[in-house]
Amino acid sequence: MPWWFDLILLAVAALLWSLGLANRDDTIALFEKILAVAATLVVVLGGRWLPLEIAGLILACYLPSAARVEERHRS
User: Fold this and answer.
1) pLDDT of 31-73, one tens digit each?
2) Residue 37 CA: distances (Å) to CA of 9, 45, 68, 70
């Protein structure tokens, strides 16, 4: 894996971890943290499941935040 891709995955992992800490919904926060750990493990272990990891990271970035869901239910 190229070094720049490792840096991108680590940056995405850090972003997901920070989103998981800021998210009010415990389930979504846990899912984001699990994906962050998985992305870090891909970098550390040099796994070959990269397309699956990228799909999971993209999915996690598009998950709704708890504040947005609560706002939608109030209106």
Assistant:
1) 999 999 998 888 877 756 677 777 777 888 887 777 777 777 7
2) 11, 12, 25, 27
CB 8 within 8 A of CB 39: no
Does the CA dihedral 63-58-33-4 come out positive or negative? Answer: negative
Tell the burial category of 54 from Cβ atoms under 10 Å away from its Cβ (0-12, 13-18, 19+).
middle
Closest to 41 (Cα-Cα) out of 1, 8, 10? 10
Q: Report if pTM > 0.85.
A: no
Tokens of 4: 């720049």
Tell me the C-alpha distance between 9 and 55, whole Å.
12
Neighbours of 55 (CB within 10 A): 10
